[in-house]
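This part of the workshop introduces the protein records we will be handling. Backbone structure tokens are a discrete shorthand for how the chain folds in space. Once this layout is familiar, the rest of the handout is easier to follow. The record below serves as our worked example for the rest of this section.
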Amino acid sequence: MTLDRILTGYSARMWLLIGAIVAMFGFLILRLHTLQVLRGEEHARQISRQSVRNIRLPPVRGRIFSRDGVAFTDNRPRYDVLFHLHEMRQPGRRSKTLSTDYVLAQAVRVGAIVGRPSELTKKQVQDHRYRYGGILPLEVFHDLDERQLARLQEAMPQFPGLEIATRFDRVYPMGQVGAHMVGFVAKRPPEPGDFDFSRREWSGRTGLEAVYDEEMRGVGGMRQVLIDTAGYTYKTITEAPPVNGQDVLLTIDSRAQRLAQTLLSGKQGAIVLMDVNTGAVLALASSPSYDLSRISADYYGSLVRDEDHPLQNRALIGSYTPGSIAKPLVAMGILGSGAASPDDIINCPGYIEIGRARKRIRCWHHAGHGDLTMVDALQVSCNPFLISAGMETGIDRLTPVFEAAGLGRATGIELEVPGDDGILPSRDNLLARGRRNWTAADTAFVSIGQGFIGVSPVQAATYTAAIANGGYLMRPRLIYALRDQKGRLSYSNPEARGRLAASDDTLALIREGMRRAVNGDRATADRAQTDTITLAGKTGTAQVKPLNAAPYKYTWFICFGPVENPRYAMCILIEHGESGGRTCAPIARRFFDAWLAARPGTLSQLR
């Protein structure tokens, strides 16, 4: 039989069927070639990814310690019961399957041992199996106490797949002490990266917890596991342990911090204590405070709604009117410009009249101080003296002095809040902020620390330290060092950010005026006198007249000591006080009496 006879025996419909079959086999061959030859390596990688899972291993967060070793934050271990479902196959004929009812029954048995009812539901088991399969363990019980832990450890051989896992909760042993400085954490979403599974971890939200979040967070590890076709882990390939976060060591002295917080109790204000030579902050307290050990969404919401604004770190707010604590800076400008000399005498009749309208500004001592030199004026805090000499100097020569003292710029401290740079009194600044030109009255008020001027307690403590140390404006710093998990330290070094615009002779004169303000025969801060330490200081009382509210006062006291060899600078601010001399100066005395009397000598010099 010839080929022609064979071919002529098929109908057109048969040829169509044969063609379809050939085309189908051709397509299959072409598809197999594409999958196995052209895209073979890509599919191999996909198959590998389907059978390998990367699990993030969370690091332990670094802690925050005071310079004397007291923990402001810590990590408290919590013990949880986990079920590894891939090891909990129900025995019997269905040994290769996992029964939800079997898992629930095992949870009930564990609950009976630890004395706690199981709250695990069928939906929770099914949701976990759907989301994680057998790769991640199922959390069954949380926060076992020591007794429950001991009982379960004895019974563990009865429960294949059961694990007692340790996790760490963030705790704050100091509670309200240093809360604004330390800040708090919250759970954050998993980090982006090459992980198939990761859990929420702690992340800093406020304070140093936020500023040094990256250093304290650490670096996560990874466990790479193989899973079977049912989605359960059957082998660990590799495991890279996490690198725990670094500890933050503060310059803060825990006793000074606790004492400052106690002295502010029931008040609105702040206390800042610094080492005059290094800028190390020994205490940074703000009041009212809040309890870090109670932090939660509901508690935070109540703090936000609180009319006393306990979340505000008053030590850093730069909008406070300084009153007479600005007079040492004004004196620098007056003496530096030559508008008055140290020996010049100005009479204080109890008031001064300014402008064409002869607007009268009274001295706080209504009877007048009489004839005064600059040292006398600082001692008695005379308004007419400083206004008269300040207006003679002029704002254009006062502005550089305020600027050199740090007003109008951030202090450089590790914490930042909006407006912490303060308000620099200058023509340009008033035009930009107040949209008006500078007047002689503005100069008069700024000369006594009123009007268009603002400072933070940290700024005031910083320039007070500069007056004490010979004029060097040190960066205030809270961080002494960072310590890694091997105990290696990375130090934070002292840094001078500038120098006061005053000669050594001018600074000596101002120090003498501040010494007499505490210890002189006409002292305005005599309530700060103590046998524990000889202080030099300056009081301040600023009138505040808010819109639609009753006027009140910001009361201040800045000081340094010991006078013969300055080591410490302090700023105290109390809102709604009576006066700097009556409200704040006694707090300084009580602080140093309690802090220094309880320890021999003084705190050793910090780096």
